[in-house]
From TrEMBL:
<feature type="transmembrane region" description="Helical">
    <location>
        <begin position="25"/>
        <end position="46"/>
    </location>
</feature>
<protein>
    <recommendedName>
        <fullName>Ammonium transporter</fullName>
    </recommendedName>
</protein>
<feature type="transmembrane region" description="Helical">
    <location>
        <begin position="385"/>
        <end position="403"/>
    </location>
</feature>
<feature type="transmembrane region" description="Helical">
    <location>
        <begin position="297"/>
        <end position="316"/>
    </location>
</feature>
<keyword id="KW-1133">Transmembrane helix</keyword>
<keyword id="KW-0472">Membrane</keyword>
<feature type="compositionally biased region" description="Basic and acidic residues">
    <location>
        <begin position="443"/>
        <end position="452"/>
    </location>
</feature>
<feature type="transmembrane region" description="Helical">
    <location>
        <begin position="328"/>
        <end position="350"/>
    </location>
</feature>
<feature type="domain" description="Ammonium transporter AmtB-like">
    <location>
        <begin position="26"/>
        <end position="429"/>
    </location>
</feature>
<dbReference type="GO" id="GO:0005886">
    <property type="term" value="C:plasma membrane"/>
</dbReference>
<dbReference type="GO" id="GO:0008519">
    <property type="term" value="F:ammonium channel activity"/>
</dbReference>
<comment type="similarity">
    <text>Belongs to the ammonia transporter channel (TC 1.A.11.2) family.</text>
</comment>
<feature type="transmembrane region" description="Helical">
    <location>
        <begin position="273"/>
        <end position="291"/>
    </location>
</feature>
<feature type="transmembrane region" description="Helical">
    <location>
        <begin position="107"/>
        <end position="132"/>
    </location>
</feature>
<keyword id="KW-0924">Ammonia transport</keyword>
<keyword id="KW-0812">Transmembrane</keyword>
<keyword id="KW-0813">Transport</keyword>
Amino acid sequence: MADAELSPEAQAAADFAETLNSGDIAWIITSSALVLLMIPGVGFFYSGLARRKSALSLLFLCMMSVAVVGFEWFFWGYSLAFASDASAFIGTLKHFGLMDVMRSDEYAPMTTLFILFQGMFAAITPALAIGAAADRARILPAIVFIFVWSTIVYNPIACWTWNGNGWSAVMGGLDFAGGTPVHISSGTAALAYSLMLGKRTGYNKTNGLPYRPHNVTHVVLGTVFLWVGWFGFNGGSELAANERAAMTCLVTHIAACMGAITWCLLDLRLDNKYSVIGFCSGAISGLVAITPGSGFVSPWAAVIFGIVGGIVCNFATKLKFLIGVDDALDIFAVHGIGGFAGNLLTGLFADSNIASLNGSEVDPLGWVDGHYIQLAYQLADSCAGMAYSFVLTCLILFLMNLVPGLSLRASKSDEDEGLDDTQLGEFAYDYVEISRHLADYTHSEHSDENAAEKGTAVSPTKTD
């Protein structure tokens, strides 16, 4: 008996299945997991740089970004960024609640994976910005901010950059993996958040923080998570397991290496000492700079991206002293300025020979191809992203601060006590709470001896 003829719906499903490539699917699933790994990496990086009495709150906010944006992306974020009937600025609610996305031909044949992968980008972006909350921001308003900011700031920028209808995409702007939507937007938002919160207690405009990073090991651990995850962040943006994706991973790694070396040398010239924090900051700077151009540039250009990224981000850490804004973790310097520099370098070094490694025909791209107008496109996109993120972030925070219960700043007593205690009630290091209370008074030799007999840690000064 002959097989029954398939219904049109079944035939469409069978045809769709034949278009899928298992290697591509495996790579995008892996890349999504790698980008997710980056978010606790950001948390460890930030918590290690901050004071230990607020370390756990930063980890909490970074992980909360995954949950809050995960819901926002399902609810309307994906539709606002990638709906096929989007305007030049923002999408519609065509896919509200992820309606009608199965077997869609908008980003076929892997729309479902595209939603998952881009959702991780949406989650890590406010996690990068929320480091500005260090030591002085209340947690509930920060969580509300993550949801609102993702909707009003991230989604429109993602739309105009990556949606085919977006004004930057139509203009010809190049941004392979998030120079503007991720790094410029988050870095600028962190600057605005720092400005609206005000300086931390004890902040000194001349010398900055009177506290050193409390756990450099956490900074290294966070850097490792980020470096590994960036292979998925950039390499996965090709949305295929092909030669261009492999080249993207290669140039990403080269830029990170050169950024780390450059920052270390810049610090060495000042202090005649090597810095682990400098190495980690430099690696992140190189990774940020290469992000927008990672699918467009050759390995020799990646060396330049890393060196320039390390230099500009290193010197940009001084900007907060010039403008008097307490950017606690130098987020604007590394992500805002690094992303801006990476966008401009992409306009110079984008190479059609690299972009065509996936088998497609590509028009001339950057200055190396003789396409000189590209630098103007990159500059326009970068300035628009920076201005939009800063103004809208300030407006969001200003309005939130007027709402009862959503005041941004923790009280001075809460700040002195530490956000881990007052906002969470949990601590990154339990022994700190013992030594804190013992250090509230001046220790005599006798009390030190008694403490030693009991095995209790003591300190002659109050801990932070």
